[in-house]
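Input/output pair, single chain:
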Amino acid sequence: MPDAGYPTFEVRREAPPPPGRVISHIRPDIGQYVGSPSIAILPDGTLVTSHDLFGPGTSEYRSATTLVFRSEDRGETWRQVAHIEPAFWSNLFVHDNGDGRGAALYLLGPTHHHGLLVIRRSDDGGHTWTEPRDTATGLLTPHGQYHTAPMPMLVHRGRIWRAIEDATAGTHWGRRYNPVLMSAPLGADLLRRDNWSFSEMYRQSPDWLGGRFGGWLEGNAVALPDGRIADILRVDYAPGGKAALVTLGDDGQSLEFSPETDFIDLPGGPTKFTLRRDPRSPESAPVYWTLANAVPPRHARDKANHAAIRNTLALLRSTDLRSWELRHVPLWHPDSRRHAFQYVDWLFDGDDLVVASRTAWDDRHGGAPNEHDANSLTFHRIRDFRTRTMTDSPVDPFAGT
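Output:
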């Protein structure tokens, strides 16, 4: 009991910061959460990241907001340079279309939750952006509904490719999404709708995976070892560990998928992952990398659906995109209910990977309410990633299992 006559004070302890560098922090108690991390490297080495805002305290279903940040010191410090609206589920990328203005920074994604696809261009490194007013200035889909996340751009065979999902097949999450590949010639003005081509859509079936298939989404455009274009998607499947490999047909329009052979084993497959080919690997013998929310056996019973277990970020390697080797665990937290390193976007930076993470962590306002509703955008650098092993992971949550 306190002494009579003396005031009492509530002492609120500062929570330890999350790993890495905090780029952005949003108080979770205002109903706004950090989503859709993306990262780009400008030609001068400047790093640019972005994230959107989702949750009941936002306008994500009408006109969503994306924030843009820059670092001129290799990710040590960050400052916000732009506030973009409407923009949601969008990815940053750098591209030079040969128009004489040099490489520009682009932002591509829907206007809002299941909105129209738009693209913006910045010629000053992310400070100012074009406005997508019509099909000549960045409006890529005048009608429809679309879903995506900050997914990679693929440059292959004279075109730039991107995977998206059509979201018009009903209203049920997961089941309404079906893959589409879009592309444009490398020398084209990417703001013009008439420079983009869209593949046909491939419709899913609820009967797949023994009737436990819940949907596919957030696909990666990637070149297969044989040179064909594919879309590798996250698969909603409660036991986890599955992704889907959809291939573009020889006609450049149709998509091909066999439920008997094209569901692949991928630790972390039920959550969003980005995969890319190692630029130091030859086209004749490609190596692919991804960072995914693999689930260690010790966490396998934390939740019934492994898509909600996001406290482990694992580095995986493949030479064929069908079999994946667990190489390293750069980030892990023992609690999977209110901590997560999720939806990470990443790029090669020489011998390193630079990573932007949607991170759920503790803070002085009570912390993230759950693993999904993240309160921070964090930056991480995985040094010498090609030589990393499980034994030099900060913690190996797979050990002894």
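The domain at 21-392 is CATH 2.120.10.10 (Neuraminidase). The helical segments are 208-211.
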